[in-house]
From TrEMBL, chain A:
Keyword annotations from UniProtKB, A to Z: Cell membrane, Membrane, Transmembrane, Transmembrane helix
Protein name per its UniProtKB record: Branched-chain amino acid ABC transporter permease
Origin superkingdom: Bacteria
Intracellular or extracellular location(s): Cell membrane
Lineage start: Bacteria, Pseudomonadati, Pseudomonadota, Alphaproteobacteria, Hyphomicrobiales
Subcellular location, principal: membrane
Domain High-affinity branched-chain amino acid transport system permease LivHM N-terminal: 19-116
GO CC field: plasma membrane
Alphabetical list of Pfam families matching this protein: BPD_transp_2, DUF3382
Automatic annotation (TrEMBL), chain B:
GO biological process: D-alanine transmembrane transport; L-alanine transport; L-isoleucine import across plasma membrane
Residues that span the membrane, as ranges: 12-35, 42-62, 68-88, 100-120, 140-167, 199-222, 234-262, 274-293
Membrane topology qualifier: Multi-pass membrane protein
Organism of provenance: Tianweitania populi
Protein name listed in UniProt: Branched-chain amino acid ABC transporter permease
């Protein structure tokens, strides 16, 4: 552990001696760290008293794995990385002009693939089998893509660190749930209403924090997010507290047909096709895809408008921004409002999809996940964020599917339990390995003359 | 009146625990300018270690004097949390020190998620109750003061004195204060900055471990998710007192504890966390440098 940054010593002597030493250190450290937490487990016995159960075998395995991992890392991975770095030479500044067809049209191809995704799934695994794939991988990932793109406006473009984004998601979800169940209004009316309401809350919460910057802003937004969640839990007359709101109406297709088997306008009856639960899921997939693409479209367009330029200027340097006569108050508030609006849309969609919501869906962890996706994707880069959402959320969903792991670790092994643990570790590892995110483009859209080699990528942020 | 004093005492007890955690936040923020988001979970690790040590002690010995048991729990918890915080700093924060400001905050959040879920996976998701360690309650003019409250007060005062001595009178504390003011200059003058930062993390973790042990003793129960809310409240305390200021952290902790217990007593127990979070927001908005903090100078 001590020689993490000690690059010179490694190249002169044989790497194996050093690697073995490091592996021993790592083993010792992990034995210390895990002795109480993996080696011993506190469980209740029959009379509900806590007793200790020991797992020395597991502890030994984990320690051995850490040691082996450390050894391989020092002995093989690091020299390989060094060699590559040495051979690479200066980075080519000018991008290649003649790109292949695939590269030039990669966004169109991506969108086409996304549109065709349910069709491909249905044709390979059938209607009933497609449910899981479209829902867990399609809809679930796209919700996070949309949320992350929405948050990207606040964090990635305007540089305002928001740790309470999930509050707007909650506002949208509860707006649809309450108005939908009490007044029977249609989703298509309530979707904009939820967006407007969330935007209103965005301004309301944004207003007091205008003067704050960086970490302080993050903490206050976290506090606001928690306050909204706690109010949702405790304001039982309206929100029914932790019991949540159930029976949230499903979305209809503009009144033409709907997805309730018992209703006269059921899609199966209208089109004379067999009853299946998959229609609704596929419909939801296209809806969230449309909403997400709308978010992306608006973001791309806004970046070219004066307000988008002002956001980016604000992110780069607030003081310079103010000196140039940009109204930072309005700039910040619009960023909060527009980001919150997309959160509200996503929330309304979420409520309609689940049919049931309670405050448990809007915990701080969700904000952290969304923020992690934005940062890991490389703030400001839409495609990077989409990739990050796919990797992080899709990866968590895949873990759920890995039932074969039970054969390796025994029947009691439940991969779901490890999802958040791995998510947390992945956040750390990706951040340390690639601090600028997977794609990592944060250059301003507009330049005075040309993009310089030392650009905003290296400036500090969090000053917004 | 008696009821009020009773709540005052309860609040101060709670506040001492928050204060002990808050010192860890405030020191780390002072020295490297980052919010160590995982600190609340370090506190939880401390409480859990204390629990496991307690179980080991009660499994091996038929009966241990409570003072000895508490001391052993505390010391082992301090060692464990120090080990954790030291490793976390080394693995997750140090490589990102020169990076952009958000980077260490993200890894800290990742670490926080990883730690609480690690404990959930290895120790199970349920609450872990232990039989009460200290049960004596004294009655003074109609106000009941339990022995555990006295223990908490005494331990806090002793530790804070020790801590004050460490920071203000030793060369280590001088190095810490130097790094806080100007890390580069401190390095030029021969202060080992990396080592000082590591020690800061270890000191913060040790205090969090003591807070965890006291928490376990006071409430008699701990769960994997117990790090988040006390963590955020302690951070609130640190901000309220003025981040970077150690007496401020203690003062802020006591105030938060008082507000929370008085709010629960006189208004609504459901909204006590709302009160704490609202105070955080209000303080940051109207008094960003806290009660005892120095105002931050804006450098262009």
């Amino acid at each position: 552990m001590t020689a993490i940054s000690d690059n010179t010593a490694r190249s002169t002597s044989s790497p194996y001696g050093e690697a073995i030493r490091q592996a021993l250190y790592a083993a010792l450290l992990s034995a210390g760290l895990f002795f109480f937490f993996i080696g011993l487990e506190s469980t209740q016995d029959i009379s509900n008293r806590l007793i200790l159960r020991s797992h020395w075998g597991v502890l030994a395995t984990v320690v051995a794995l850490v040691a082996i991992g450390r050894f391989l890392f020092i002995a093989f991975v690091l020299p390989a990385v060094d060699r590559r770095r040495a051979n690479r030479g200066p980075i080519a500044v000018v991008a290649e002009k003649d790109q292949s067809f695939l590269r030039r049209h990669r966004f169109k191809i991506m969108i086409a693939l996304l549109v065709l995704y349910p069709v491909i799934i249905v044709s390979t695994v059938g209607m009933q089998g497609s449910l899981k794939w479209v829902n867990n991988f399609g809809v679930q990932v796209l919700i996070y893509v949309m949320l992350a793109w929405g948050l990207n406006i606040v964090v990635g473009l305007a540089g305002l660190l928001d740790l309470g984004y999930v509050a707007f998601y909650a506002v949208g979800a509860y707006a649809y749930a309450l108005l939908g169940t009490h007044f029977g209004l249609s989703f298509w009316i309530l979707l904009p209403a939820a967006g407007i309401m969330a935007a209103f809350w965005g301004v309301l919460l944004g207003f007091p924090v205008l003067r704050l910057r960086g970490d302080y802003l993050a903490i206050v937004t976290l506090a606001f997010g928690e306050i909204i969640r706690l109010v949702l839990i405790n304001w039982r007359d309206v929100t029914k507290g932790s019991a949540g709101i159930s029976g949230i109406p499903k979305i209809t297709f503009f009144g033409w047909f709907d997805f309730n088997v018992s209703s006269p306008n059921y899609i199966g009856k209208v089109f004379d096709i067999p009853t299946s639960g998959a229609y609704y899921t596929i419909f939801l997939y296209y809806l969230i895809l449309a909403l997400a693409l709308l978010t992306a479209f608006v973001t791309i367009r806004l970046r070219r408008l004066p307000v988008g330029r002002a956001w980016e200027a604000l992110r780069e340097d607030e003081i310079a921004c103010r000196s140039l006569g940009i109204n930072t108050t309005n700039t910040k508030l619009t960023a909060f409002a527009i980001g919150a609006m997309f959160g509200g849309f996503a929330g309304a969609f979420f409520a309609a999809r689940q049919g049931f919501i309670n405050p448990e869906s809007f915990v701080f962890l969700q904000s952290a996940i969304i923020l992690a996706i934005v940062v890991l994707g490389g703030m400001g880069s839409l495609s990077g964020i989409a990739i990050a959402a796919l990797v992080m959320i899709g990866g968590m969903e895949i873990l759920r599917e890995m039932q074969f792991l039970k054969l390796v670790f025994g029947q009691n092994f439940t991969p779901e339990l490890y999802r958040m643990l791995l998510f947390g570790i992945a956040m750390v590892v990706v951040m340390v390995w690639k601090p600028r995110g997977f794609v990592g483009s944060r250059e301003p859209t507009a330049y005075l003359k040309e993009a310089r080699a030392v650009s905003s990528t290296f400036t500090k942020e969090g000053h917004g | 009146m008696q009821y009020f004093i009773q709540q005052l005492i309860n609040g101060l007890t709670l506040g001492s625990i928050y204060g002990l955690i808050a010192i860890g936040y405030t020191m780390v923020y002072g020295i490297i300018g980052m919010i160590n988001f995982a600190h609340g979970d370090i506190f939880m690790i401390g409480a859990f270690t204390a629990l496991i040590v307690f179980l080991i002690l009660s499994a091996i010995f038929y009966s241990v004097p409570v003072v000895v048991a508490l001391l052993i729990m505390m010391v082992v918890a301090m060692i464990m949390t120090s080990l954790y915080n030291w490793t976390i700093e080394k693995v997750a924060y140090r490589p990102l020190r020169g990076s952009f400001r958000l980077a260490p905050l993200i890894t800290a959040i990742g670490m926080s998620i990883a730690l609480s879920n690690f404990v959930q996976v290895t120790q199970g998701p349920r609450n872990k109750p232990i039989p009460p360690l200290v049960t004596d309650v004294y009655n003074v003019y109609g106000i009941s003061i339990s022995l555990k409250q006295i223990v908490i007060a005494v331990v806090t005062i002793v530790l804070l004195t020790l801590f004050w001595y460490l920071v203000n009178k030793t060369s280590l504390g001088r190095a810490q204060r130097a790094c806080e003011q100007d890390r580069k200059m401190a390095a030029l003058l021969g202060v080992d900055v990396d080592r000082t930062i590591s020690i800061t993390f270890i000191m913060g973790a040790s205090l969090a471990a003591v807070a965890g042990t006291l928490f376990l003793m006071y409430y008699g129960v701990v769960a994997f998710s117990d790090g988040f809310v006390p963590g955020v409240k302690a951070f609130t305390a640190a901000v309220l007192g003025g981040i970077g200021s150690i007496p401020g952290a203690v003062l802020g902790g006591l105030l938060i504890g008082l507000i929370e217990s008085l709010w629960s007593a006189y208004f609504s127990i459901d909204y006590k966390d709302v009160a704490a979070f609202s105070i955080l927001a209000i303080v940051l908005i109207f008094l960003p440098s806290g009660l005892l903090g120095r105002p931050e100078v804006e450098k262009v």
